[in-house]
Amino acid sequence: MMIFDTLSGNEKQLEISAKVRMYICGVTVYDESHIGHARTIIVFDVIQRYLESIGTKVEIIVNFTDVDDKIINRAKKENVRSSAISSRYIQEYYDSFDGLNVKRAIKYPKATEHIQDILDLIQSLVNKKIAYASKNGVYFSVLKFPEYGKLSRKKVDELISGARVEVDETKKDPLDFALWKFSQDDPSWESPWGRGRPGWHIECSAMSLKYLGENFEIHGGGRDLIFPHHENEIAQSEAYTSKPVAQIWVHVGMVTIDGEKMSKSLGNTITVKNLLQNWGPNVIRLFCIGAHYSKPVDYSARLLKEHETNWNKARLAYHKLIQTEKEGTEMEGVDEKLSQLKEEFSKALEENLNTHMALSVFYRLVTFCLGNEGYLTKLDTQKIIPVFEEMMNILGLKIKKVSEEEKAHIKNLIKQRNTFREQKMYEESDAIRDKLAAKGIELKDEIQKTIWLKEEKKFKK
RNA sequence: GGUGAGGUGGCAGAGCGGUUAUGCGUGGGCCUGCAGAGCCUAUACAAGGGGGUUCGACUCCCUCCCUCACCUCCA
Q1: Which of these, A89, A121, A185, A276, is most buried using a 10 Å CB contact count?
Q2: Residue A255: which nucleotide is closest by CA–C1'?
Q3: Pairing of strands A57-65, A19-28
Q4: Is the CB of A33 under 7 A from strand B?
C-alpha cells in the first residue's frame, strides 16, 4: 500500500513485515470530541480495516494526553481534581468512538500513568546533554538536534526570527521546549529536578517507544500536529534512539466550517455526540472519508444530508439483497462485475487511501444491485452479499443485523398486511405497518412485493 | 514574511497527456390505496487568469491572481 509520508514529502510503499504498528496522537481530554477528531481517527480506522482485510496484523496505540494546562484550568473552574476532568472526557471519548464503530486500539495509554517512563526518557536526554534543567523546568535544547525542523520544513533561524516564540530568560534558547515543568499544583510528581509535570510532547515519545518500540510503521495525527508536536516528538525520540521514529508520517486534513478550521480554541466545534444523535454513525463516517484524507473538508448540514441520501440507498440495496428469493440460474456477468469492482476498490485504497474513489466503487455496486433488482436471483445475491459486506466492513459502515427469527416474523406480518391490502382493508394494513415501525422496521411497498428495512439506530445516551 | 496544500461542471469530489469519473441536485417518464423509496431517461461552456511545451493538456512547464493550513494551544 502506498501512503504519503509527510517527512519525505513522497508517497512511500508501506513495508509490511509481520505487522503494522501505528501510533495515533489522540486527544487532550478536557472537552468533548468533535468531528475533526473523528475524521482523524476514522481515517486510521479505515487503514487498519483495509490492512486487516488483506491479512495484515495491525496494532494501534492511541494516547490520551491527560496532563495539560487546559485540563488543569477546567478543573480549577469546576473545583475538582484534574483527574476528574480527564476521566470524564476519556469516557466521553469511548462512548463517541464506539458509537462511530471505530475499532478499539490495543491500548490507550495515558500520560499520567507513564510518569516514570517519561522521567527515564528525560533523564537519558539530560545525560546526553541534549536536555537541561533550568529555573522553570527541564528543557530540550533544540540546537543540539541539528535535524530540528525536518518534518515541518522549518528553518531554526526563521523560527527564532518569527518572534512568535515566547520570551523566557530562563531558557538557553527561545526555541527550547519543556520536557518537565516545575509545579506544586495538582497534578504533580517528584522528579530528580524538582516537583512538576511533563511537558506536552514528551508523553508521546515515551509511550510510543514503550508500546511500539523504535522505528515503527506509521505515526499519525491531524495536520495541525505537524508543528510543533510531531516535530518535537521526533527531536526527543530520535535524540534518544538515533533512529527514525516511524517509517511513514501520516497527517489528516482539517475539518473546516464555513471555510475556517474547526477547533476548540475557536469555539466552532461540532461534537461527535451531537452528530451521532442527528445522523447516526454511518453518515458521519461517510462524511469523514468522503474527501481525500489529506485535504480539508468543509462541514455543512447539506453535505451530511447528501451522505445520508447515499447511505439510505446503500441500505435499501442491502436489504433488497438479503430479501431476494427469486429462484433460477445466475444472471450473466455478475462474477465479472464483482471481481472488477473488488479490484477497483482495493486499488483505490492501495493508492494512498483514496477513500473517495473506493466509495464511488461501492456506490456503483449499490447502483448495480438496485438497477438489476428484477434479474438477480438468490444465487446471485449469495455472491454479491459477501462483497457488499466486505466493502462496508473495510469502510466501517454497518447495517444492523436482524435475526432469522425476527425476519420470519416480519415476513409473516408483511404477508398478513398484503392480504389486507388486497382486500382494501387499509386501516388494518396500516396498523401492521405502524406496529412494525414501532419496532424499528420500515416497510416499503413495491410493485410485486414489500421490502422491510431495519432503521438506523441513532446514538442514545 | 516563511513553509506546505489547493483552485474542476448548480453543489460535493476523483482520476488521467488524447476515451463517461462517481454522487447529489435538476427536467421528463414508469410505478403507486396512503406513505416512502426506487427504476428508466435526459441534463453539466467543467477546468482561477495569462503564456509555453505538444499532433493534442483539466492533466507537464513558467508566471500572475486567489483560498486554506502551519509558523502560539489545537485532531
Answers
A1: A121
A2: B75
A3: parallel
A4: no
